[in-house]
């Protein structure tokens, strides 16, 4: 029996793992689960470009979102590693949000989807 460390090897830098139709579909589906939700894409677009936004600024910029829903969506984005939260120790509390580097790297993909949607017949 071989050991796990002998079976698993890192890919050389820049190489992608080989995908099957099933594994590619699963990978894309996991990303879609991260960004699905009524407000997540709006939140992401509010934070693209290195924007750092306070909670109250996001709440004002997204009409129709409740505080509860905004908090829930931000927490999910934070748990998935797309958004970072900064809490400033002051009274009243000041909480700011910004995209992580990984979250910011989602921008070109969403831009591509937008261009694709614009070209729809």
From TrEMBL:
Q: What InterPro entries does UniProt report for this protein, alphabetically?
A: HTH_HxlR, WH-like_DNA-bd_sf, WH_DNA-bd_sf
Keywords attached to this Swiss-Prot or TrEMBL record, sorted alphabetically, are: DNA-binding, Transcription, Transcription regulation
- What GO molecular functions are on record for this protein? DNA binding
All residue ranges annotated as the HTH hxlR-type domain in the record: 25-121
Write down the species.
Falsiroseomonas algicola
The answer to whether the entry has keyword DNA-binding is yes
Q: Basic and acidic residues: which segments have biased composition?
A: 1-13
**Cross-referenced Pfam families:** HxlR
- Could you tell me what this protein is called? Helix-turn-helix transcriptional regulator
Keyword DNA-binding in annotation: yes
Annotated region (Disordered) at 1-21
Q: Which residues form a coiled coil?
A: none
- Which Gene3D superfamilies does the record cross-reference, listed alphabetically? Winged helix-like DNA-binding domain superfamily/Winged helix DNA-binding domain
């Amino acid at each position: 029996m071989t050991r796990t460390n002998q079976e698993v090897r890192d890919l050389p830098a820049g190489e992608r793992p080989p995908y099957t139709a099933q594994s590619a579909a699963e990978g894309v589906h996991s990303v879609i689960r991260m960004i699905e939700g009524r407000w997540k894409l709006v939140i992401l677009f509010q934070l693209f470009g290195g924007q750092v936004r306070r909670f109250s600024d996001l709440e004002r910029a997204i009409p129709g979102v409740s505080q509860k829903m905004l908090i829930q969506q931000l927490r999910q984005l934070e748990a998935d590693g797309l958004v970072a939260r900064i809490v400033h120790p002051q009274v009243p509390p000041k909480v700011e949000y910004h995209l992580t580097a990984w979250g910011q790297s989602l921008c070109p993909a969403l831009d591509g989807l937008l261009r694709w949607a614009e070209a729809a017949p």
